[in-house]
Design goal:
The chain has about 525 residues and is of the alpha/beta class. Helix content is about 40%, strand content about 20%. Strands 4, 5, 11, 12, 13, 14, 15, 16 and 21 form a nine-stranded mixed sheet that branches. Strands 1, 2, 7, 8, 9, 10, 18 and 19 form an eight-stranded mixed sheet that branches. The protein binds flavin-adenine dinucleotide.
């Protein structure tokens, strides 16, 4: 088989397929190469408000209304209930002491719930990737991308302005020629190996391991521990059980499947012998009795996966004629669901490069800028997640550090929705002239594990750093770490977004914030 295309995309996860779809919309010929076949298991399932906004922006820019429906729980359920997904109303954290049952007081010292939406209809989602990705790959194929699944590429060569990829598909040789190669094959993927790209250990994050699978019949935390006053049902969220040395995620899909797994420091992973899979999971839950209750009747529906090294970051992510998408360039940790927004930001940037430039010096220059921004975003994410890891035994500091994320994320989303993206430069506002350096300095302070006065000072400094960006009442201690999504917070803080209360009001109306609609 011989294929000639403008762009060859290696990997047909959501990122590769979405890039293929967008490129078809601007008239490029595309070959989308997949090693496996859909539907297939993939990890990375929980979206965020910013991820959904970026999905909307890409859908609008490239005329993809069939993709836009997935950016909200309500439109998804009304339009494509056949594609598996889950409702995510926010971020839920419970903090555990190993060996002890979970218990808390009226101040919610051992929990943190941050709503991302005021009601289900405009809620965020978890993507059931076997369905989600195969739907996108099918769409890309319908849009005219040449889709080659079960294809193994053994060799890639770049000569002048063409790349050649050689491999086999179902025993037959495949020969692909393309002007540009996009690597969407995931961490330590195709080009990383083929080109021997360097990926030294991360700078701030301790080495971590992953252990995860899909389950059925996982009991709901909010049924085992009901509380009518929570800002949203605790399990309709990305539910995090945090403990010293790691954390567990639980993401529920409406098809009865729950994605659950743990990210663990090497020490914790060694203690439970994480490579043992099911037995290691049992050993972990034996230290977390309240979490174990949730899994009493649960069964796995997919084999256990142990990832001996979760985090990864390449130092070079593009060259003449090729680029890695952010999800192939680096993975930090799922703790703040940063993978999707980073990937979607990168897809937008790379499409921009391919649309605006032709092969030659101007494209090379644009690619260098793509690399600079992508690596800077990964670094900002790494530093914040590393700071959180360093505070897993100090719950108040951990919770306060998360406010850096929630303030930056909610401010960025609102600024973009108000058509003022220039107010929120960089993922996590890392390129903001005031917030960026503060974020860096505060994370560095947290990494030093301060005690006494220095620790109090860190907490105060975090409050001061987020104040100009806090549009969600995050510094209001009377909320006792249960933060609802309130229209009045946004209206009251309109001036921080250089907007009038009426403009914010109109935004809230437009985005369905005030009406609950029908899911
Ligand atoms: C444990 C874990 C949990 C995560 N949780 C979240 C989360 O909750 N939220 C979030 O935002 N992000 C999360 N992430 C990050 C998230 O997984 C990625 O951002 C996302 O999967 C990227 O999607 P993708 O389509 O680029 O890559 P992938 O989903 O990795 O898909 C890559 C595709 O390429 C194919 N492929 C691989 N090699 C080749 C090859 N040589 N030739 C052809 N095809 C190939 C694979 O078969 C696959 O289909 C998580 C990451 C990890 C490790």
């Amino acid at each position: 088989m011989r294929v000639d295309a403008d762009v060859a995309i290696v990997g047909s996860g959501f990122a590769g397929s979405l890039a293929a779809l967008a490129l078809r919309r601007i008239g490029r010929t595309v070959v989308l190469v997949e090693r496996g076949r859909h539907p297939r298991f993939a990890i990375g399932e929980s979206s965020t408000p910013l991820a959904n906004l970026l999905l909307e922006e890409l859908a609008d820019r490239y005329g993809l209304p069939q993709i836009r429906v997935f950016s909200k729980w309500g439109t998804w359920q009304r339009s494509r209930p056949d594609v598996g997904g889950g409702l995510k109303r926010g971020f839920t954290f419970f903090f555990h002491q190993p060996g002890e049952r979970f218990g808390d007081d009226r101040e919610h010292e051992r929990q943190l719930l941050v709503a991302a939406s005021p009601h289900d209809d405009i809620g965020d989602t978890h993507w059931y990737r076997p369905d989600f990705d195969s739907n996108l790959a099918r769409d890309a194929e319908s849009a005219g991308a040449i889709y080659l699944d079960e294809t193994a590429i053994d060799r890639v060569e770049f000569d002048g302005d063409r790349a050649t990829l050689d491999g086999t598909r179902l025993g037959q040789p495949v020969h692909i020629r393309a002007s540009f190669v996009v690597d969407a094959s995931g961490p330590r993927g195709f080009l990383s190996r083929a080109l021997g790209l360097d990926a030294p250990p991360l700078r701030w994050l301790p080495p971590t391991q992953g252990l995860y699978t899909h389950f059925e019949d996982v009991a709901r935390w909010d049924v085992l521990r009901p509380d009518a006053a929570r800002p949203y049902p605790a399990d309709d969220a990305a539910l995090h059980h945090v403990f010293p040395g790691g954390w567990i995620w639980m993401l529920r899909f409406s098809n009865g499947t729950t994605s659950a797994g743990a990210a663990l420091t090497d020490d914790t992973a060694a203690r439970i012998a994480a490579a043992d899979g099911a037995a290691a999971w049992d050993r972990l839950l034996a230290t977390l009795p309240s979490v174990r209750e949730q899994f009493q009747s649960a069964r796995t529906v997919h084999p256990w996966i142990h990832t001996p090294r979760l985090a990864f970051r390449s130092t070079q992510i593009c060259g003449p004629g090729w680029a890695l998408l952010p999800s192939s360039a680096g993975v930090i940790d799922p703790l703040l669901s940063t993978g999707f927004p980073l990937t979607l930001l990168g897809i937008g940037r790379l499409l921009d490069v391919l649309e605006r430039t032709r092969p030659g010096p101007s494209r090379d220059e644009a690619l260098r800028e793509y690399e600079r921004i992508t690596l800077a975003e990964l670094d900002a994410t790494e530093m914040l997640v590393a700071a959180l890891y360093s505070a897993m035994s100090d719950v108040p500091v951990f919770k306060r550090l998360t406010l850096l994320y929630f303030a930056a994320a909610s401010f960025s989303e609102a600024a973009r929705r108000l058509n003022r993206p220039e107010l929120a430069p960089g993922f996590l506002l890392h390129a903001h002239p005031a917030f960026g350096p503060e974020l860096h300095a505060l994370c560095a302070m947290a990494l030093a594990k301060p005690h006494g006065r220095a620790r109090d000072e860190l907490m105060k400094m975090i409050d001061a750093a987020i104040e100009p960006f806090d549009i969600a009442g995050l510094r209001d201690r009377s909320r006792r770490d249960w933060y609802p999504a309130l229209a009045e917070d946004l209206v009251a803080n309109a001036s921080k977004l250089q907007a009038t209360a009426a403009e914010v009001d109109a935004l809230l109306e437009r985005s369905g914030f005030r009406t609950s609609g029908q899911a």
